[in-house]
Design brief:
Elements lengths: L1 H17 L4 E9 L9 E5 L6 E6 L5 E7 L4 E6 L6 E5 L7 E2 L3 E3 L4 H11 L3 E4 L2 E5 L11 H7 L3 E3 L5 E3 L2 E2 L2 E4 L2 E4 L4 H4 L7 E10 L1 H6 L6 E9 L6 E11 L4 E10 L3 E10 L8 H7 L45 E15 L2 E25 L5 E26 L4 E25 L5 E26 L6 E23 L14 E25 L2 E22 L7 E2 L5 E20 L2 E19 L6 E22 L3 E12 L3 H4 L3 E2 L5 E4 L7 E14 L4 E12 L2 E8 L6 E8 L3 E14 L3 E7 L2 E9 L2 E21 L2 E16 L7 E16 L3 E14 L4 E16 L5 E8 L6 E7 L3 E8 L4 E11 L8
Length: 937
């Protein structure tokens, strides 16, 4: 906290010493018909060299105001798209404020507009629904990156994770010269692209691919930032290479190179380190994938939301269904990581080709201590502890290809192919205690090892056709996904004491070998037809089909001393499962003058078939033959209003089939204290979702406001029911269906300038409530959780050589147990951060980053603080300042560890993970920031 207070005091001192303002200036801008011109750019300039002093935009009444302006000779200039700019010298009064005479702008011929615009040089202006920034008007140090430039732009923020926040919303897509090169967030580009190479930045809401084709806005949009390069920088490469070494044999190295022109885009990236850095975050990986990143409609699943269609594709991670480049949480424990990737995109005329290959490897050691207290229905409880050491060695290969071709003005085809191959070796040593009372305890030592490989391929084709009749369109898609996984493992456990008379308990000495072979094949197809009834009314019809076949062959063998392993019939299972899904639906959409209303209804049918036995071709132990029919309504409404205001509301009914892992009828005893068992009789989950929201952004005042409310009511929720053995307290989880669950989530965000273009604030709150139901020993239990979340973020850029960014968030989770009110929990998680950047003389720079986290649970006397201070001092070398020497100090207080706490349906848990702490690195970096841009008058 002392660091936070010091930083705020320093910022206050700087603002105080700079406070020489004496004057407010107000006025109105109109056209020659005396109509006010809203969002006109108004600039204050020095008469000597026309240097920019301040700028603003007019409001809806054409009014503008400058506050706290120094009394000095001034010029005022007004620029508006389609009008001739006007400039005049101001005569300032000796005392009081200045009311400027009305500024009248005259319309200009289109052929002269571009010439005039180049001369006007307004820092920002509105072009229809697009907010455009002139990069040259926002001063950043030589060699600065795009990220540093974005921090200077009014209405823009870079959050603690490096995401771009614009007008209170996260930027989802960045394009370069109008083409999607970097997917999702763009940290790889923003941290390497030279700000001096950028001419303009344009912020707007981009429509979905389907809306672009049909011309009918479907309400689905992405907040998009387009980076327009200077002509001198249209061709060139950017990237960097760095290497560093330090204390305790710590090292890190990474390299990247990107080259693009109007046709080709090429990227190569690699990294290696033993300091818990993956080198790429999730967003970085999406950026690396370029234009092959997720795009609306690429899945080919047509129709309104809430369909509950079967999907086995997810973003990132290391799971059986992911084709994305894997990313792991390597910030905990101790890890050694390497990766290499290459990306190539071809964009010319109406052909868009993207491809990438990525390989990564991580060797991670995690040493943790976890404690969990479970509450029983008779107001008693028991505690289990787990002290373990786990080693995970993972390797991943991923390849993706995407091709889109506009055959002509009416036909478009999109083809995608994805492949993956992964290996994972895991070893676990664990010491567990089960504490019933001070005199009754059981201990278990576990030694688990497993080796696994998995692979998959997916191909998708999407065809879209636009008819001559305006608004009439047709689309069709087909895809096939095949995956296979093979795992071998060994499980050993030794128990010191068990007070149980049950011979079937798994809380006992075990020596087992297990083998699992899984495969699945998914075929999907969808059709969509849109017919205009009239100019503002459209009829949309769609059909979805999918057929999933999966097979699980799991064998478990008991190993006895010097004897042949014996098949364990209770734990071995062969499971053959198929899910057939059909959905047909229609909706009517009204779209007119910013209003968009869609009302639809779909009929869906799930057919689940399966059978299971001990091993393949043995006697059938059971079959599954279920059929589920549902009518699913859907309503959505949104309205875009003048002044960047938007109102939305919607309702959808979703039907989601059970996960394959929840259906598989075998017991997973990899942790004998917590056994998991599948349920082949699971029903699909039915949920009713409601949403409403309002947002606004005023580019004249840089004020943004957002409020939203989302709720979900479950009719047939899939939950993990529990059976707790009264003697051993071993918990068995088995998926089941319950009705009555509820979730409510709200959000309020308010951003505003404290000192315009210099000091900004953003406040947010997102209270939530959930009602969770589950069966514990066949008794339905209810758990209510109220979460109160509040956050404050401050961005201060008062001077070219000093920036400070700070924020704090507070979360209070109140968990109430209906059956055990005496065990109610109040859990507090509080965090704060501050980043300070100072430019020192002789091209030296100082960065300091402080993060503070506190975890409290008064009921269990849990109170843990984790203050982390990182400091960096670096110097730019060379005439072009492309060389950098950096001294880095991480976790100066040596306090780093990973803390977690959570309250569930009938338990509360805490965890600690030993994590890499204080170390120092000295490194050298060479930055390639595109071609050097010469300054021209």
């Amino acid at each position: 906290m002392k660091f936070l207070i010091s930083y705020f005091l320093l910022a206050t001192l700087i603002f105080t010493t700079q406070a020489q303002s004496k004057l407010n200036i107000r006025g109105v801008v109109k056209d020659t018909t005396n109509a006010p011109l809203d969002y006109t750019s108004v600039l204050l300039l020095t008469p000597k060299d026309s240097s920019l002093i301040a700028y603003t935009l007019t409001n809806k009444n054409g009014e503008y105001q400058f506050k706290n302006v120094d009394r000095q000779p001034l010029l005022i200039k007004a620029t508006y798209m389609g009008y001739l700019p006007k400039q005049k010298e101001l005569i300032l009064p000796e005392t009081g404020d200045l009311e400027v005479e009305e500024i009248l702008l005259m319309p200009i011929l289109q052929e002269l507009y571009e010439v005039v615009v180049k001369a006007a040089k307004a820092p920002l202006m509105m072009r229809g629904d697009t907010l455009e920034y002139d990069a040259s008007k926002f001063k950043v140090p030589p060699g600065a990156t795009l990220e540093e430039l974005l921090r200077k732009l009014p209405g823009m923020q870079i959050d603690a994770d490096g995401n771009i926040i614009a007008q209170g919303q996260q930027v989802q897509k960045v394009t370069v010269d109008g083409r999607r090169f970097f997917g999702g967030n763009t940290k790889m580009a923003t941290q390497n692209l030279n700000a001096e190479s950028i001419s303009k930045l344009q912020l707007f809401d981009d429509k979905s691919e389907q809306a672009k084709l049909t011309g009918v806005d479907d309400g689905v949009n992405e907040k998009t930032l387009n980076v327009e390069l200077k002509e001198e920088a249209k061709k060139g490469g950017f990237g960097k290479i760095s290497a560093s070494g330090g204390t305790d044999d710590r090292w890190a190295a990474n390299a990247s190179y990107n080259k693009f022109d109007k046709t080709n885009q090429f990227s190569i990236i690699g990294y290696g380190n033993n300091v818990n850095q993956s080198g790429l975050s999730f967003d970085d990986l999406q950026e690396f994938r370029g234009s092959s990143a997720f795009q609306f409609g690429d899945t080919g699943d047509f129709g309104f939301n809430g369909s509950g269609g079967i999907s086995y594709i997810s973003f990132g991670g290391d799971n059986e269904e992911s084709f994305e480049i894997p990313f792991n949480n390597l910030s905990s424990g101790f890890s050694n990581n390497q990766a290499f990737g290459v990306n190539y995109n071809y964009l010319k005329d109406k052909k868009d080709f993207s491809s990438n290959y990525f390989f990564s490897r991580s060797d991670q050691i995690v040493e943790s201590y976890n404690a969990r207290t479970t509450f029983l229905e008779d107001n008693t409880s028991f505690t289990s502890t787990d002290q373990n050491s786990q080693n995970n060695v993972a390797g991943h290969h991923r390849a993706n290809i995407r091709f889109q071709n506009d055959l002509d003005s009416t036909n478009t085809i999109t083809l995608t192919a994805k492949g993956r191959f992964s290996t994972l070796s895991t070893s676990l040593l664990s010491y567990q205690e089960l504490i019933r009372s001070s005199t009754e305890q059981s201990q278990m030592d576990r030694n688990n090892q497993s080796d696994k490989w998995s692979g998959a391929f997916q191909g998708t084709a999407i065809y879209r056709h636009k008819f001559r009749k305006n608004g009439r369109t047709f689309a069709a898609s087909a895809s096939n996904t095949y995956s296979k996984a093979d795992q071998d493992g060994v499980q050993k456990s030794i128990v010191d004491l068990v007070n149980s008379t049950d011979p079937n308990t798994y809380f006992r000495n075990l020596d087992q070998v297990n083998q699992a072979l899984n495969s699945s094949n998914l075929i999907k197809s969808s059709l969509l037809f849109v017919e205009p009834i009239k100019k503002t009314l459209f009829w949309e019809s769609f059909y979805n089909f999918s057929l999933s076949n999966s097979e699980t062959d799991r064998k478990v063998y008991d190993v006895e001393a010097s004897d042949t392993p014996q098949l364990n019939a209770d734990l071995s299972r062969f499971f053959d499962n198929s899910i057939t899904y059909n959905r047909v639906g229609s909706s009517i959409r009204y779209a007119n003058k910013g209003s968009n209303l869609s009302v639809g209804l779909a009929a869906s049918n799930y057919n689940l078939n399966g059978q299971f036995s001990v091993v393949k071709e043995s006697d059938i132990l059971g079959t599954v033959d279920k059929n589920y029919f549902n009518l699913t309504p859907n309503v959505s409404y949104w309205k875009t209003m003048k002044g960047n205001k938007r109102l939305n509301a919607g309702y959808s009914m979703g039907v989601t089939p059970p996960n394959i892992s929840d259906l598989q009828p075998f017991k997973d005893i990899s942790n004998p204290l917590y056994i998991r068992e599948g349920n082949p009789d699971l029903k699909p989950e039915v949920a009713h979702s409601f949403n409403t929201g309002y947002s606004m952004y005023d580019p004249a005042t840089f004020i943004n406001f957002r409020i939203s409310l989302n709720s979900t009511l479950y009719e047939s929720q899939v939950v993990q029911n529990q059976t707790i053995d009264p003697e051993t307290f071993v918990t068995t989880y088995k998926a089941g269906n319950v009705s009555g669950g509820q979730r409510y989530f709200s959000y309020i965000g308010f951003g505003f300038p404290i000192v315009k273009t210099k000091f900004n604030a953003f406040l947010n709150a997102n209270p939530s409530y959930s009602k969770s139901l589950t069966l514990i020993n066949s008794i339905e239990t209810e758990t209510n959780t109220f979460s109160h979340n509040f956050g404050v973020n401050l961005d201060a850029t008062p001077l070219e050589w000093f920036n400070i960014y700070a924020g704090t968030s507070f979360r209070l989770s109140k968990t109430k147990y209906e059956q055990n009110p005496s065990q109610n929990q109040d859990i507090i998680n509080w965090s704060a951060y501050t980043n300070m950047n100072i430019k020192l003389p002789k091209n030296f720079y100082l960065d300091m980053k402080f993060n503070y986290n506190r975890y409290e649970n008064e009921s269990f006397g849990f109170d843990q603080e984790v203050p982390i201070l990182n400091a960096f001092i670096y110097k730019l070398l060379g005439q072009a300042k492309k060389w950098e020497v950096r001294l880095s100090a991480y976790d100066i207080f040596k306090q780093n560890q990973t803390i977690s706490q959570y309250a569930g349906q009938n338990f509360v848990s805490t965890g600690r993970i030993e994590t890499l702490s204080r170390y120092f690195l000295l490194g050298v970096t060479y930055n390639m920031r595109g071609v050097e841009v010469k300054n021209r008058r």
